[in-house]
Amino acid sequence: MNTVSELPSELIPIRMTIGAGEITAYAEMSGDFNPIHMDAEAARSAGMNDVIAHGTLTLNLIWESIERNLDLSNNPELTLDVRFKAPVYRGETVETGSALQPGKSAYDVWVSNQDGLRVIEGTLGITPTKQPQTK
Amino acid sequence: MSINDGGNNQPQSVWTFDRFKTGEHIGRSTQTIDQQTADRWHALYKSPHKEGGLPYGFVQLIVMRAYAEVVKPRPPSNIHAAYSCRLAALPSLAREIQASVDCAEKYLRGERKMVKFEVTVSDVETGNFLCIANLAICWSI
């Protein structure tokens, strides 16, 4: 597990273009077939411009970013707290971003779309697992 | 991923905002993570396989799967507004995982009807706590 001084100042971003195939694949995995993710007409009826991706489909990119960038070998406790700020429409490209909070084992994390709009925003906390005491 | 809802006595009519009660237990989902689901995850996110473990995001998938399985039928047009979780440990392939779904809170934010669900995930055999998550959903009706 990284100490605060070992944590990178930011996590290497992960980018993904979310097309119909990705949305369908995630719906099948999660069991969430909400029509706003599957049917353009239903999405428009709900006030969207088109089909939108599941928020957690996009959020998983943050988890992937965490996993690929941090040493989690000692199984630290992770806390993630985010808000879904804007929809991600079918065909959009999103990218994760992060910044280490000064002096803390925590990051500001976000996902932006191709226009730089933050569609997800929140914080990640990393708490080391308590090690057994030795004499 | 296979799911057994444990014989939940689900209401057959659509869940509406008025039907939720703060603090009420809604149901449980028992899931077993199989290799096929893990492979689909890796294909979707291009994530590298790691020996002996699943991706961290997989716990979130378990949470969403439990929510979708237990809180049904849902109205169309619900919008996911926020998500938080405390993740203590990862599940393993082929283990039975239980997720318990409660209504943590319901409230109005302006004219929006908000329902917050709490999902607690644990390993069935060991009873070990894996994760607790909160989902805030803007409920459409």
Please tell me how large the radius of gyration of chain A is. 17 Å
Strand order of the largest sheet of chain A: 1-3-4-5-2
Low-confidence stretches of chain B: none
User: Could you state the order of secondary-structure elements of chain B as H and E?
Assistant: EEHHEEEE
- SS-based class of chain A: alpha+beta
The helical percent of chain A reads: 25-40%
Number of strands of chain A: 5
Give the SSE string of chain A. EHHHHEEEE
As residue ranges, the low-confidence spans of chain A are: none
Count of helix runs of chain B: 2
Mean pLDDT value of chain B: 90
What does this structure look like?
The complex is a heterodimer of chains A (135) and B (141). Chain A is α+β, with helices and mostly antiparallel strands. Chain A has 4 helices and 5 strands; from the N terminus they run βααααββββ. Helices cover 27% and strands 27% of the residues of chain A. Chain B is 18% helix and 40% strand. Chain B is built from 2 helices and 6 strands, in the order ββααββββ. A 6-stranded antiparallel beta sheet of chain B has the order 1-2-4-5-6-3, covered by helices on one side. The longest helix of chain B is centred in the middle third of the chain and has 14 residues, at 57-70. The two termini of chain B are 30 Å apart. The model of chain B has no long low-confidence stretch (mean pLDDT 90). Chains A and B meet through α1, α4 and β2 of A and α1, α2 and β3 of B.
SSE inventory with pairings:
The complex is a heterodimer of chains A (about 140) and B (about 140).
Chain A: E1 15-17, H1 20-30, H2 35-38, H3 40-45, H4 55-69, E2 77-84, E3 93-100, E4 106-113, E5 118-127
Antiparallel strand pairs in A: 1-3, 2-5, 3-4, 4-5
Chain B: E1 2-4, E2 25-32, H1 35-45, H2 57-70, E3 79-87, E4 96-109, E5 112-123, E6 129-139
Antiparallel strand pairs in B: 1-2, 2-4, 3-6, 4-5, 5-6
